[in-house]
Amino acid sequence: DAKTTQPPSMDCAEGRAANLPCNHSTISGNEYVYWYRQIHSQGPQYIIHGLKNNETNEMASLIITEDRKSSTLILPHATLRDTAVYYCIVRLRDSGNTPLVFGKGTRLSVIA
Amino acid sequence: NAGVMQNPRHLVRRRGQEARLRCSPMKGHSHVYWYRQLPEEGLKFMVYLQKENIIDESGMPKERFSAEFPKEGPSILRIQQVVRGDSAAYFCASSQRAGAIHEQYFGPGTRLTVT
């Protein structure tokens, strides 16, 4: 699986959009970009994934650059409950038995 | 996180004791994954099991750690002769279909403290 690079921490004002970047310059053509988050003292929670088109669901939007070397997770109206560590993972969608690789992620602090 | 149960949520053991961590997957899920999270670190994969079989244990320490997922009952992660370095949060995840990570549902974790 390709390596990802994320900033260690970010702040965001409550109600504003949170834009979390992820670099994955070695991504291969059939690897997807997945985002998970981990709220303090809880297990990771799946947010969204995509291949090359932008994706949106009830939680967030995922913008993937045309060359697929980077992506941005957008939380359109951040709330205090969105304070968490956000992990960007690049992986084949059906990777069989290969393990998930979590980096250190970005610690997002949403401030009132 | 709904559906994956882990117990106990908190476990304190003295050095040299055994720790047994339990994971009950979501109903209908036959694949279980264990991860360990050291303080201020990301999650690290330990082992992947399917009912009665260990599929991938490449992340398991070679000694003192073992895992099982019997035909009946929860998956068990067992740590023998615990040391302070084993203090961590241990998460399990379950899935219905092998490898599809967005279908892996994580439990709330067991926080092991070794004194």
Descriptive notes:
- The complex is a heterodimer of chains A (112) and B (115).
- With 112 residues, chain A is mostly beta strands.
- Helices cover 0% and strands 46% of the residues of chain A.
- In chain A, the strands form 2 sheets. Chain A has a 5-stranded mixed sheet with strand order 1-9-8-3-4, with no helix packed on it. A 4-stranded antiparallel sheet of chain A has the order 2-7-6-5, with no helix packed on it.
- In chain A, a hairpin with a 5-residue loop joins strand 6 and strand 7.
- Chain B has 115 residues and is mainly beta.
- Chain B is built from no helices and 11 strands.
- In chain B, strands 2, 4, 5, 6, 9, 10 and 11 form a 7-stranded mixed sheet that branches.
- The radius of gyration of chain B is 13 Å and the shape is globular.
- At the A-B interface, strand 4 and strand 8 of A face strand 5 and strand 10 of B.
Describe the structure concisely for a colleague.
Chain A has 112 residues and is mainly beta. Chain A has strands at 9-13, 18-23, 31-38, 45-50, 55-56, 61-64, 70-75, 84-92, 106-111.
* β-sheet strand percentage of chain A: over 45%
- Count the beta strands of chain A: 9
Biggest pleated sheet of chain B: 7 strands, mixed
Number of E-state strands of chain B: 11
Helix content of chain B: under 10%
Output the number of helix runs of chain B: 0
Order of helices and strands of chain A: EEEEEEEEE
- Uncertain runs of chain B with pLDDT below 50, 5 residues or more? none
Strand residue percentage of chain B: over 45%
Query: In terms of structural class, how would the helical and strand content of chain B be classed?
Result: mainly beta
Radius of gyration of chain A: 13 Å
The best one-word shape of chain A is globular
* Assembly classification: heterodimer
Uncertain stretches of chain A? none
Alpha-beta content class of chain A: mainly beta
Instruction: Give the helices and strands of chain B as they follow along the chain.
Output: EEEEEEEEEEE
Helix content of chain A: under 10%
Using only C-alpha atoms, the radius of gyration of chain B works out to 13 Å
Shape of chain B, please? globular
Separation, N- and C-terminal Cα atoms of chain A: 37 Å
